[in-house]
Amino acid sequence: MEAERRLFDRYAPLPGVPDELADSKGKMRAVWGPLIAHLSKLTPGEVEAAFAAGDQHLADAGVFFRAYGDTSAAGRDWPFSPVPILLPETEWQEIAKGLIERADLLEAVVADLYGENRLVAEGHLPAALIAQSPEWLRPMVGVKPRSGHFLHFVGFEIGRGPDGRWWVLSDRTDAPSGAGFALENRVATTQVFPKLYENSNVLRLAGFFGAFRDALDRLRQDTASRVGILTPGALTDTYYEQAYIARYLGMALLEGEDLVVEDGHLRLRTVQGLAPVDVLWRRMDGIWADPLELREDSALGTPGLMSAIRAGHVTMVNALGVGVLETQVLMAFLPAIARKLTGKPLLLPNVATWWCGGARELAHVRAQAARMMIAPALATRMPFEGSTVHAVAGKLQGVEDGDLHGWLTENAQGLVAKELVTLSTTPVYHQGELTPRPMTIRMFLARTADGWQVMPGGFGRIGASTDTAAISMRNGGAVADVWVVSDRKVEPVSLLTPPHAPFVRAVPGPLPSRAADNLFWLGRYVERTEGFARLVRAYNSRRSEAATELLLDSIRARLKAYGIDPAQGVPKGLLRTLAAAVGSASQIRDRFSVDGWAALKDMEKSMTRIARTAQPGNDAAQVMGVFLRKIAGFSGLVHENMFRAAGWQFLTIGRSLERASMMTDLLAALADPAAPQGGLDLAIEIGDSTMVHRQRYAVVSSRETVIDLLALDEMNPRSVRFQLDGLRARLNDLAHLRSHDGGPRVETLVHDLQAAMIGHSVHSLDTKALKAIHAGLLDLSPALGDAYLH
Amino acid sequence: MIYDIKLALGYDYAGSAGAGRHLVRVMPLEVPGQQRLVSGEVRVDPTPDERRDGRDFFGNNLVEFSFRAAHDGLDLVMVARVDRHAVAPTEDRSTGFALLARDLAACRDLGPGSPLHMVAASPRVTPDAPTAVFARDLLRPGQTCLQVVQTVGRALHDHMTFDPDATDVDTPLDEAFAARKGVCQDYSHILIACLRGVGVPAGYVSGFLRTEPPPGKPRLEGADAMHAWVRAWCGAAVGWVEYDPTNACLAGGDHIVVAYGRDYSDVAPIKGILRVSGGQNGRQAVDVIPLAG
Question: Distance from B179 to chain A by nearest Cα, in Å?
């Protein structure tokens, strides 16, 4: 056995199933040679180490995956299979030709469905199917897209059938996902195989994305306007991917509520007022885009968007309504439509499909049901297990003792049958060996000035078992990179500016109000979490000491007022606040540093773990100490690395406001003449100022020393005064962003609070005065909102 | 008959509402051979910052307007003069019910008047078994499509009790059907579901009824607010026929059409109103006065 091909010689393709690595005669396909040689020469330990580099990259980058129905913001780890799927460039070019032809066909079909309707009038498509499709959007009928095209970016799921030919399994046109995942998988494989990748003539992906970005830029009519990516929000299953690609392409990730329509123009709400947007790369399904004219129960859309489209002031990539192309039953008619339009059969066939509404077709489906999957005709994807009644290989699923033929008779008009396809296999690495697994590839096409460009690569999906029926893919599995390997030398491309280009300093676009709001609340929640942790630590460290019951009572009352159960070592109320911080950060993944996010997630993970075992008392006090150090680490990371732009101002305003507010609240309780003994020292401890107090006053604490240090001192970052000064400075920084004249109320409020604080002495700042300041601070949040956040 | 019609809609917001965008469908429709819009206008107070008058997919008159600044209420007045010369069909030339499916299968039309829009589920009328069973039990061999519509409509009218307090604008039709109570919107949605359930294309009509009945006739239910009824497709020969299940009659000269749609969601008089907690906050007044002629 040659060392170079050790892994291949032990590889056993499945009998009768085409394989990507081994050809039909069992010989290794040439394109795999270098990769097999590379892996064969490594020990299993070295392979694991290399793969770990890929996993580490994905974990660091925060790539996650959310299964359908999972509503947590966090998601699961990315199921990455490090061995890429390899395609020779010549074969990829053939696929690309077929996909371009298909993209043009779909454009022609959708333009007709919203335009002349000749396909229906001439009987090439049953009118009833279009009229009944929830994806055929009536408000789009008669609308001509400003760009001249409905489709600008599409995805196709393809697989290799038993005869070795490639087939189109599904068309993704409405809001195709996966291109960002393909990019992320590419970065991970280059971590796993850095040298091999360098030397293997793998076509790079950056050129494709660069061309797409340029195409989007060129679709703008107003060159001062921006291109945005429209997302359904942080709870969508591909949000990570959307945030990732937004960062990669340097585009704003926008939600429906970020946008407003004025005089038929689309505008973005920013902290500097409304800013023009006239191209949206849409990752939200079309039916949700405008609650006034489309689904009325949509909370994700922008009222009036249809109006802006109709007025020709915005280009949607893709146009609303193209979801009708994903209707499962359409594939039954596309081959004939293609022949009618071009006179030739499709270069790449799609899965054989029959609409059960025709008598002949129904008879065929009945006879061949064992080789088919039968499902709702108008759905945009084939059903998942348990989702709806459907039939697989002649068996009805989703009903007890279902009668297939009765069901077919009853529902024929609404059913589509598709041939059950089997897929080819590709090697995955498992316990020191390569084993075959079924796979599909999602390919992507972008319309550019020079026509369609096909991404030289794709998003590979790999089945969980050796079952090669395409339908088994719905049970999940892994994802993999796809390498298109050229015979020629491949020059590296990058989206970074080439060195000879003139230096241009990119001007950041205005900060969307919703992002500013989330940053503000992130600042508040992190600070609040820290404040709670200090209080919980102080309480738990005193429980075993000789603290008076009165003082413990007083802390308990404070904790309870904050919704924290003092009996719990790591209280749930504290974890909830931390979760709220993570929630705010998760809304702005596109503008939040990868390290900052990782630190925050890490904090949440470890605290949730510790919470299960931490005992009240000294144990909890110690845990809080560790936690506080982690928070300090996070804050340092964020504040040391964040660009001093508007985003940072809002984050910092949130933090200052929360810190000042918690401190005034604390002092009003603990520095009151009626406060229990030990309250003053407690306040100093929570204010993290024990050392300073000792050095500065050299006396035991008194009400005067505590108020002086924690409220009035302008040098102590824990004091109320210090935070008010900070708030004033940050608001001054923001003032130049304001589009309108006259200072907003929030500036007056902060000015007045600061002036009041400067005017106070240790004597005049009594409990009543502290409460007044506290109340003033609470007014700031809505006033800030009025000034900048809508 | 020529009518002068006035509709006043008013909304008071509990707090001040921020910016808002609205779609309004209140202006009577021009229906060739049945109804002519002589004149009409929609006035909005406060004056909107933007306004566009247009038509939707089904050809309904539409006003879209928006406010940029906060406002604490909204008043809308529609006045129109309409010449309504439609009469309810007096003889039945509709297709035999058994042949309706054949007529439908031959249809290749996706235009606004096509019956194909009114066959399947729509946002507010999803097929359900109780309504389909209710209608199916009334089918008899040899019926014409019009007979099916009238039989089911009459039976539904007898099955239900008119009760303005039992439902609101968002009550699903299955609830209203189970409770056997509701208003014209509920009656119409239920009849649409019944008819679609047995294969008759059926859609929603919003409009007005003359306020005072002609001498010697009873006052119709629903005349003091915007009304709703149903149109059903009775085969290629006669096309659409309108039936008012709330009053168990074919729609004729006393019914003035404002908008056609698949269900209420296509024709809602006003969209984009913020729902304020604490009950109803809307006012509505309708006058439909016949002039000579």
Answer: 25
